[in-house]
């Protein structure tokens, strides 16, 4: 037999009901932070269930639920307080035990969680859903020991959230565990100040007790911010520099009402506001330091690139003075190797140094070979296929050298000096945790007795060393209507720490 209080058929919400639930969903993230609790919005469904349509987890403590429950349905056994609140049309409280791991407090026996629930009513007085607040028992007991002013203000905030108030709250940044909280009234008097807020203001010279004093006493912009938020009943967030510190300050206006019951028409009796303070000074200083370091590193890469190009130019000049074809070829190969490394430094000088698109690097190497190595009359094409693949700088450098050597090897050994026409194709494969690199030329096949173990080519020895030692991968050459060079190596996470594990 079904419980009579909760509908056994799905509730069909109107557009206005859906809009109200959406507004409430925007309020609960900050409410969860201040309540140090998980908060859910749910609507009754068939089979005596409540479906969760919104969820907020606190940034101030570990959440009760580590995973998202949106879309799941709770039964009476999961949240009896929620069902009682909707059935009785009033606030309800209960206790639920979760496994400790599920409740986010480590391993062990069942973890008690306090459940508080409110029904949500639309403008016509019809119940359209409910709000569930889950707090682990330890945090619930801590809240009881906090100032009565804070507890009352938090309860007023919770009631206002049922109406989707205040406006503009979705634009506020989260409230963190190291942020301070102040409660002020419409006259600008400080009624409550958290211990963290007290310490933040003590750091800028206010060592005396501030509760009971007007915000104007602080000679900061706090009073103006609170008055603006209360006048418009809209949340405010500003960033400012005051007393040598960088602050992020948020004001959440809340309305205290007088009403015969929870859902009767309310009349505003007074206004309060939460003033939330975050000292962002150290974070901004670290950010500025990182920006300076990144700029210096990019400038360094720019200079290295220029130096490498200068060396390449000097070697080209030296090449023109040589008499033997063998010496000229060796220097030309050295120039291409230097330019391949220069390409990496060029990318690092203009973009994020944590990730390099190796496909773009390959395109640049191909362009360099087409303008500096290929004889247009031979009509040998270089093509590139495959997806964008992002690699850390060190891995990208080794990969660039491998690409350069394989392209040069295909051009040098795949076609004789008189050959006209041909295609050398470079193809990338993204295999998730690995990268595949395939260079195929349609020229001469490998000798029947070819073996990589007995190879005498400097370029191929360089490829073997880079692939097996630097990239920790595999390299092979096969005859395939020409010759195919096959390279595969594991993709290193962009954080770069995996390099240490491989060395």
Q: Care to describe what's here?
A:
The protein has 503 residues and is of the alpha+beta class. Helix content is 38%, strand content 26%. It folds into 4 domains: 1-145, Beta-Lactamase (2-Layer Sandwich); 147-279, Beta-Lactamase, CATH 3.30.450; 282-353; 366-503, Heat Shock Protein 90. The strands form 4 sheets. A 6-stranded antiparallel β-sheet has the order 3-2-1-6-5-4. Helix 8 (325-348) runs antiparallel to helix 10 and helix 10 (393-414) packs antiparallel against helix 11 (458-470). The longest helix is centred in the middle third of the chain and has 41 residues, at 281-321. It is elongated, with a radius of gyration of 34 Å. Residues 1-10, 259-268 and 496-503 have low confidence and may be disordered.
Give the secondary structure arrangement, pairings included.
Elements: H1 15-35, E1 38-45, E2 49-56, E3 73-74, H2 80-88, E4 92-99, E5 110-121, E6 127-136, H3 137-144, H4 148-161, E7 180-185, E8 190-193, H5 195-202, H6 222-232, E9 236-242, E10 245-258, E11 267-279, H7 281-321, H8 325-348, E12 356-357, H9 358-372, E13 380-385, E14 390-391, H10 393-414, E15 422-430, E16 434-441, H11 458-470, E17 474-479, E18 483-490, H12 498-502
Parallel strand pairs: 13-15
Antiparallel strand pairs: 1-2, 1-6, 2-3, 4-5, 5-6, 7-8, 7-11, 9-10, 10-11, 12-14, 15-16, 16-18, 17-18
Helix pairs in contact: 1-4, 7-8, 8-9, 8-10, 9-10, 10-11
């Amino acid at each position: 037999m079904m419980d009579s209080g909760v509908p056994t058929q799905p509730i069909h919400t109107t557009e206005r009901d859906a809009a109200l639930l959406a507004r409430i969903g925007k309020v609960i993230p900050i409410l969860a932070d201040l309540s140090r609790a998980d908060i859910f919005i749910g609507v009754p469904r068939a089979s005596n269930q409540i479906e969760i349509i919104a969820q907020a987890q606190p940034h101030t403590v570990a959440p009760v639920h580590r995973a998202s429950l949106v879309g799941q349905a709770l039964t009476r056994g999961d949240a009896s307080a929620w069902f009682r609140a909707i059935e009785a049309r009033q606030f309800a409280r209960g206790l639920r035990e979760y496994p400790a791991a599920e409740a986010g407090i480590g391993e062990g026996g069942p973890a008690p969680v306090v459940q508080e629930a409110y029904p949500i009513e639309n403008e016509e007085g019809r119940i359209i859903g409910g709000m569930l607040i889950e707090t682990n028992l330890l945090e619930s007991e801590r809240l009881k020991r906090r100032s009565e002013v804070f507890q009352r203000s938090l309860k007023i905030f919770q009631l206002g959230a049922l109406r989707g108030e205040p406006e503009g709250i979705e634009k506020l940044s989260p409230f963190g565990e190291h942020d301070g909280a102040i409660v002020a009234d419409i006259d600008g008097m400080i009624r409550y100040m958290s211990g963290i807020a007290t310490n933040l203001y003590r750091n800028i010279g206010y060592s005396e007790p501030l509760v009971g004093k007007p915000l104007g006493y602080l000679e900061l912009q706090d009073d103006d911010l609170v008055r603006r938020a209360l006048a418009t009943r809209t949340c405010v967030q500003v960033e400012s520099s005051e007393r040598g510190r960088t602050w992020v300050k948020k004001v959440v206006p809340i309305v205290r009402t007088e009403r015969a019951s929870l859902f009767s028409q309310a009349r505003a009796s007074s206004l309060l506001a939460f003033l939330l303070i975050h000292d962002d000074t150290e974070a901004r200083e670290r950010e500025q330091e990182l920006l300076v370091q990144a700029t210096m590193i990019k400038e360094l890469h720019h200079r290295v690139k220029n130096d490498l190009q200068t060396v390449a130019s000097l070697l080209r000049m030296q090449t023109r003075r040589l008499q033997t074809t063998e010496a000229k070829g060796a220097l030309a190969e050295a120039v291409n190797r230097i330019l391949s490394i220069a390409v990496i430094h060029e990318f690092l000088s203009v973009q994020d140094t944590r990730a390099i698109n190796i496909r773009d690097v390959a395109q640049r190497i191909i362009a360099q070979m087409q303008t500096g190595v290929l004889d247009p009359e031979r009509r040998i094409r270089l093509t590139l296929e495959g997806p964008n693949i992002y690699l850390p700088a060190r891995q990208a450098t080794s990969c660039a050298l491998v690409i350069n050597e394989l392209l040069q090897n295909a051009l040098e050994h795949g076609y004789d000096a008189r050959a006209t026409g041909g295609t050398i194709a470079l193809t990338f494969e993204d295999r998730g945790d690995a990268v595949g690199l395939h260079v195929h030329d349609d020229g001469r096949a490998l000798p029947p007795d070819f073996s990589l173990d007995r190879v005498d080519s400097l370029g191929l020895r360089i490829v073997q060393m880079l692939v097996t030692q630097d990239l920790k991968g595999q390299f092979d050459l096969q005859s395939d209507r020409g010759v195919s060079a096959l390279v595969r190596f594991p993709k290193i996470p962009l954080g770069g720490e995996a390099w240490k594990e491989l060395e």
